[in-house]
Specification:
alpha+beta; about 10% strand; 3 domains; DNA primase DNAg catalytic core, N-terminal domain; globular
Length: about 625
């Protein structure tokens, strides 16, 4: 309906927002300043114990510092009470003692029609409930009893029964004076395409009433008693009252339970919700026969900032969770998150509760995983990442998914979490000696050569590694530019390995912090120009960091080459070859010595070290050729 100019402003001026909100919250009078119209309370939109929900009578707005809900009095009535716009205006007008403007005949007719439909639904509900107690409802009563539902449960959820007769409900309503057209418009009967007599939609089914947030019966859902029925569950069609994509079963009672501190748990069907509620989880809801829609997801977030999606532990349940990821990512952010509770294979909440009691389902809910875990699982489960191309494809898929998150802070946290998971998945494995190794790494030197000077000089490599970690810790903005090189650093020391993980994941662990403290306390590290200049800007730190990576990667490549040469020449060495290899090792040791000079700020120039290694390699190959038969 059209409202006169200024009508809403007049209502807002006449009715303090605290009067509207106060019907749903308990004010914290110690924190509130009543004289100034400044009010605080626990938020009615999400479970909390502290008073973070603020209402300002002077400005006419509410805001929650926890879930970020905000709006005016009309918005509160629509969000908290589930009212339509005109209904909210009418309530405000009643509070203000102001008559509502006259509606047009068309608008008045629409309102009257909805009122009539609600009355028809109430008549049908009473009739369905009566049929459950008759002889034709005996099989339905036995089935419900076998599912553990006693008389109290049947009354609480207003469960009824539709006899397997073509026009039983239609005749009853017509006899009560309800026009046939109204029965059809309510979704209780359907008219055949050939123009024949109307027939009941619900026949031979256990019937569950579907109520909106205001508690009005707006449709029904029915479970077939015949195992051979084409549809096991059937919902009423969309009507002027019922939009299944914008409705959740048991929404009103669940909202009240969450407001008292309960969890919002989203199950798949009516019987799951009933089982959860009877197990003490009263904040249970379910979509109505379809996958969760965007409107239903937003409706959940109005009730709780972090609903738990409890899906059946079968392939279909897992597929539903994976589909929900794509819809939720563009909507997620502070106060709008999801967790997923995946039930044991082949079980739904009702099965699990009957087998293990309420404790079993609570244990599953307590272990619910955040959305990022499901995203990682979807992109990695059952796949091999044994090539750079496959790893790059994974990185691209994850980056594209995270890029859909609109909130920058949430997007950054997702990136860090995925980086941490990637490190855990692809980090090299420790050997028995405590070092990291990869499948393509060279074999270690044989026992008779391990004691030689060829493996001396760990001090230099350890020092370069320490300075890399120190620079990354001091300049975290540089990590993204060297991420792949940092992943390959593979520290032998467990503490340093933990520090690498922390740097890549943007996190902090006790082991990583202790390793960084030990690095910064080392006098050799403190004396290095790369460390003494850490106070410089990133433009100076980046060349030092890149130089350090170049040094340590060249160092390790040379060491691996010597290890291969040692393996190949074992048992073939003569005095000349031994001398040349020893000289190569000595050159390496000199390069490793911590005089830490040079312009790079990292270590001294290795000069002819590569030439020495090449000569040793050539000598080994020549000797082997001479020894061949």
């Amino acid at each position: 309906m059209s409202l006169p100019p200024g009508f809403l402003d007049d209502l807002r001026a006449r009715v303090p927002i605290s009067r509207i909100v106060g019907r749903r919250v308990t004010w914290d009078l110690r924190k509130s300043n009543q004289a100034k119209g400044d009010w605080w309370a626990p938020c009615p939109f999400h479970a909390e114990k502290t008073a973070s929900f603020h209402v300002d009578d002077q400005k006419g707005f509410y805001y929650c510092f926890g879930c970020h809900a905000k709006g005016d009095a009309l918005g509160f009535l629509r969000e908290a009470e589930g009212m339509g716009f005109i209904d909210a205006v009418a309530l405000m007008a009643s509070e203000a003692g102001v008559p509502m403007p006259e509606r047009s005949p068309r608008e008045q007719g629409q309102t009257d029609r909805r009122t009539q439909l609600v009355e028809v639904m109430d008549r049908a509900l009473r009739w369905f409930r009566l049929q459950l107690q008759t002889g034709s409802g005996a099989a339905a009563r036995d089935y419900l009893s076998g599912r553990g539902l006693d008389a109290a449960a049947l009354d609480r959820f207003e469960i009824g029964f539709a006899p397997d007769q073509r026009q039983a409900l239609t005749r009853h309503l017509r006899d009560a004076g309800v026009p046939e057209a109204l029965i059809v418009d309510a979704g209780l009967a359907a008219r055949p395409d050939d123009g024949g007599a109307v027939y009941d939609r619900f026949r031979g089914r256990i019937v569950f009433p579907i109520r909106d947030a205001r508690g009005r019966c707006i449709s029904f859902g029915g479970r077939a008693m015949d195992p051979g029925a084409r549809a096991k569950y059937l919902n009423g069609p969309e009507t002027a009252l019922f939009d299944k994509g914008r409705t959740l079963y048991n929404l009103g009672p669940a909202r009240a339970a969450v407001a008292k501190g309960g969890r919002l748990v989203v199950a798949e069907g009516y019987m799951d919700v009933i089982a959860l509620v009877r197990a003490g989880i009263e904040g249970a809801v379910a979509p109505l026969g379809t996958a969760i829609t965007e409107d239903q997801l937003r409706l959940m977030w109005r009730v709780s900032p972090e609903p738990i999606i409890a899906l059946d532990g079968d392939a279909a349940g897992l597929r539903a969770a994976m589909r929900l990821i794509d819809m939720a990512l563009p909507l997620t952010g502070p106060g709008q998150a999801l967790r997923f509770a995946l039930l044991p294979g082949g079980q739904d909440p009702d099965d699990l509760i009957r087998a293990g009691g309420p404790a079993a389902i609570r244990a599953v809910l307590d272990q619910a995983q955040p959305l990022v875990d499901l995203l990682w699982r979807r992109e990695t489960e059952g796949r091999d990442f044994d090539s750079p191309e496959r790893k790059a494809a994974l990185d691209r898929a994850l980056a594209e998914a995270v890029a859909r998150i609109p909130d920058p802070a949430t997007r950054e946290h997702y990136t860090r979490e995925i980086r941490s998971k990637r490190w855990a998945q692809f980090a090299p494995v420790r050997t028995e000696r405590g070092r990291f190794t990869r499948r393509d790494a060279p074999q270690p030197a044989r026992p008779q050569t391990r004691a030689s000077n060829l493996v001396a000089g760990d001090l230099g490599e350890s020092l370069i590694e320490a300075m890399i970690l120190a620079i990354c810790a001091a300049h975290p903005a540089l990590i993204g530019r060297v991420e792949s090189r940092l992943e390959r650093l593979d520290p032998a020391d467990p503490g340093r390995a933990a520090l690498v993980h922390d740097l890549l994941a943007g996190s902090s662990s006790p082991a990583g912090r202790a390793a960084l403290d030990a690095i910064m306390a080392d006098p050799h590290v403190r004396a290095a120009p790369a460390v003494t200049r850490l106070g410089a800007g990133e433009d100076m730190a980046e060349p030092m960091l890149l130089n350090a990576f170049d040094r340590i990667e060249a160092h390790r490549a040379a060491r691996d080459e010597i290890a291969r040469a040692e393996t190949e020449i074992e048992g073939l060495a003569d005095e000349g070859l031994t001398w040349r290899v020893t000289q190569s090792a000595r050159a390496r040791q000199q390069a490793d010595h911590p005089d830490l000079g040079g312009d790079s700020g990292v270590v001294g120039d290795q000069r002819s070290l590569a030439d020495q290694f090449a000569a040793a390699r050539a000598q080994a190959e020549a000797l082997m050729l001479r020894r061949k038969p």
